[in-house]
Specification:
Elements lengths: L5 H6 L4 H16 L7 H14 L5 H12 L4 H15 L1 H5 L2 H7 L16 E2 L7 E2 L2 E7 L5 E6 L4 E2 L2 E4 L3 E8 L1 E5 L5 E3 L4 E4 L5 E5 L5 E7 L6 E4 L5 H9 L2
Antiparallel strand pairs: 1-3, 2-5, 3-4, 4-12, 6-13, 7-10, 7-12, 8-9, 8-11
């Protein structure tokens, strides 16, 4: 997590101890415990806590933006607020949506690719993804071909195709593909990616774009997928900044 200086920047002249506790303890010691709870989860918890207290000032705006920066999509944020409204109060939740609209104003609201259709939520592999993805199976005879759609900020974990490999045909939106130890590659419609077997990699959408591709599994005897660790939130944010 990046070092926080907001307390010192805004309060060092009037409340230096408060500023130090904010920057060094709250963010420096609590927020930084990413091995216990991810930054993405912490942003959701913080937004929920502030809404439950009826706080709708700049601090909530900051934490909604922080949630977006760490992969929480507009769809997810709306669902979070809708869910907690029944527990923290309808007016508290209602008052937040103008902020959500402002923070997510640059995010596309729908997927543009209609060639094969969105398909169904990719629940079978959801534990290997950050964010929501959708799957429409196009062919299973001989060669597995699927239409795969990622919501903004959605990406899969690092993984390896043992034997066989995979080909991606990009059809809509903007995304990324990266092999371990190499720079991330930006993907746009018309791009083709060949993923060789035994190569550790990940791919997914840009944080403010839907992304769709056709996935073609290259047949091979004894082929399998090995799912590994998730793509780090801060690293993913840096990839987006460099695009």
């Amino acid at each position: 997590m990046e070092k926080q200086t907001a307390g010192r920047d805004k309060l060092s002249d009037i409340a230096p101890k408060f500023a130090q506790l904010n920057d060094d303890v709250l963010f420096g010691e609590v927020w930084s415990r990413e091995d216990k709870l991810s930054l993405r989860d912490r942003t959701i918890i913080t937004v929920t806590a502030l809404i439950s207290k009826g706080i709708t000032d700049s601090s909530l705006m900051y934490h909604i933006q922080n949630a977006k920066n760490h992969g929480v999509t507009k769809t997810e944020m709306a669902e979070i607020i809708t869910h907690i409204a029944f527990y923290v109060g309808w007016p508290n939740a209602w008052a937040v949506f103008p902020m959500v609209k402002e923070v997510y104003a640059d995010e596309k609201t729908a997927c543009g690719d209609s060639l094969f259709g969105l398909g169904e939520p990719n629940t079978a592999y959801a534990k290997y993804f950050t964010g929501e993805s959708y799957l429409k199976v196009l062919n299973t005879k001989g060669v597995s071909v699927c239409n795969v759609t990622f919501e903004p900020a959605c990406r899969n974990n690092w993984h390896i195709h043992h034997k066989g490999g995979q080909i991606l045909l990009c059809t809509d939106g903007e995304g990324f593909y990266q092999e371990y130890g190499k720079e991330a590659r930006r993907l746009r419609p018309g791009d083709v990616v060949y993923i060789a077997p035994e190569v550790k990699h990940w791919h997914g959408a840009a944080k403010d774009e839907w992304f769709t591709h056709i996935s073609i599994e290259i047949p091979a005897e004894g082929s399998s997928n090995e799912w590994l660790e998730a793509v780090d939130d801060n690293y993913y944010e840096d990839v987006n900044k460099r695009r």
